[in-house]
Structure formats: C-alpha cells, structure tokens
Design goal:
With 167 residues, the chain is an alpha/beta fold. Helix content is 35%, strand content 14%.
Length: 167
Amino acid sequence: MNEQSTVYTAFVPHGINSKHFRPIGETDSDYSEFLEFKKVFTDSNASDFIVFWNNRNVRRKQPGDVILAFKEFTRLVKASDPRAKVTLLMHTQVRDENGTDLSAVKEVLAPECSIIFSDQNVSTKHLNFLYNLADVTLNIASNEGFGLSGAESLMTGTPTVSYRDWE
C-alpha cells in the first residue's frame, strides 16, 4: 500500500536582531564611535589577537576551563612568536555565588596571561562593539546547544569556537 503523507514546515526566527548585532564597517553609522571605542581599548590593552568570552559566571559555562585553555593557547602562540600578545576578554561577573572568583582563578592558574574582565552592564551597541573588537568568540559551555553568544558573534562576522558533547 502506497500512502502519501504531507509534511508541513515553518520557520521560527531565533531572535537575533541584525540591526543590533552586525559587522561595523566604514559605511556603518556607528563606525566613528566604534573606532574611538577600539582606540580606548587598544591603547590600554595592546594585543595582536583578542579572544572574547561572553557568558554568565556559572559552573556549566566553564569559566575556569576557559582560563586554563587560554593559558595553553598563549603558551603555543608565544612558542611560535615570543613578541605576540594575545588577550582574553571575559564579559561576565568576576565573582558570582553560583560560579567562582575568576580573579583568583586567573592569579593561581594564569598570572602571566593577559586576561581582562568586563563586568559592567553595557548597552547592546557596546556589546556589538565588543564582538567586533574580538578576533574570535569562545563558548565551551556544557549542557547547552549552540548558545546566544555564538549566535550574536556570528551576526557580527566574528567566528566562534564552540564545544559540543555528543554523548
């Protein structure tokens, strides 16, 4: 018996507003403000490569593992070019009762690494600037699908490194 069935599909938008999260280029209305933002950041944090991590400081987001992985990344970069400077920019609370004291983790695990904590609430515009400033966005959260920071990052044209446990 040969029965035909109909399959219906629909698109449900995920909710990343392309007017808020976008690449900032020369023709963008926020370009001048972004250049000033970038200049202020780079004047105090000269870096050749910026890794951005935008998550809540909770265990499942694995912020300590991020710092440890960044330490190894820094070691590998310095082995190939001792003058290279890489920075981890962590946009999160430095201390959280559901997470850890990230400044203590940095001091114990990676005191020689350039790790900057951005713990102030920022506007969507300035969050977009942070994604545009970065060379890559990192998200290795466990028990999470792709993640909001990865989606926002890709909307800005900044590549992501994500972890997926297939078990």
